[in-house]
# Entry
Amino acid sequence: GSEAVLTNVTIADNFALHHGAGLYSNSSTYILVNTILWGNNRGEVYFADFDDPSEIILSHSTIQDSAAGITTNDNGTVTWLAGMLNLEPAFADTSNMDYSLTLNSPCVDAGTDLFVLDGETLLSIPESDIIGSAPEIGAFELTPEIMNYFPLSVGLQWTLESDIDTMVITVIDSSFLGRNLYYEFDAWYRYEDLNVFRTEGNQVYSRIENADQVLYDFAAFMNETWVFQDEDPGNSQMTLIRIDDTIETPLGVFDSCYGFHRFIGADYEYADYFAPDVGLVQRDVITFAGLRQYFLIDFARVTVGVDDNQPISQPTFRLEQNFPNPFNPSTVINYTLPSATEVSVVVYDVTGTEVAILQEGYQPMGHYIQEWSGTDMQGNAVAAGVYFCRVSGVGFSETIKMVLIK
# Structure
């Protein structure tokens, strides 16, 4: 029967208390502002199925799986307000309980300094206490030295092309081992079984024979070398060969890139180049036959692991990642409505300011495609950078992160 206001809180990796959920509510009201609910064992919010109904009100927060992360047991209500994300927070180092944010986390500068509900001011952050253009979502400020150059999310797919053939790399699954979350690729390197990874701060680890080994170290010094013990073909010598490089690909120009050289033997080696948020943008494959270079031509989110024998589920709202992403000069946003409703599709910049309104009003059930040409509401071209597109209606609100490059 209580009310709690949570502002600038991070609740993550709860594996035991309160049914293992991030928040457990029994006849209570929670108001969450600038808050992260992510990676909790039994979902993010759990309403008791007895006593009086509960309520949760969310604003400028990110919650894993959005509405699916909240179990109401038909005993309460959920209210979605402005600034909601459905994007992975990109914590710095969860294995060491460091839940500060990486520099390019979508939660950076995505919070609000003022929150008023029913005429009552529940949050007011002085400008002097804000780092950047707006408060972060979560309990901790960002960690500037850490960048997420190796984005991991099930369904991410990189397509790279050489003058001879095409290479497609997809994240196909994820699973917990202890407290660490690992992601599985279909094939990171061709002809090798090197395909299970996790990130920890600036390091990328691969799971080899029940042990983790550093494959890429973005915190290494220039020309620093380390050994990576692979199952097959054996030892690899890894070297950081580029820092803050610029890579030109058919998809665009990428700045702040890091490059790594992997020497396997006299007849085989790689050079991998990464851009923040995007990941692999160039791979050089060097063999006894010579050099072959692959450049990124597509970076998208795809559906993986679909089982045709599974029963057909009831239709739900679905927002897909914009395509292409990064993009220049335009991109498309796809979403599916399970029923007729009022829908708004709005593009925001990193400060939370409305940039463009792509849709506002009633739409019948069905699949919709909205195109954004990188212009504001006056038709002026916007600057390169990170933007957010939120699609919301009655009972749903989801946000995707879009990167405009020039």
Summary: The first strand starts at residue 3 and ends at 7. Residues 53 and 253 are 52 Å apart (CA to CA). Confidence is low (pLDDT under 50) at residues 306-315. The chain is about 0% helix and 55% strand.
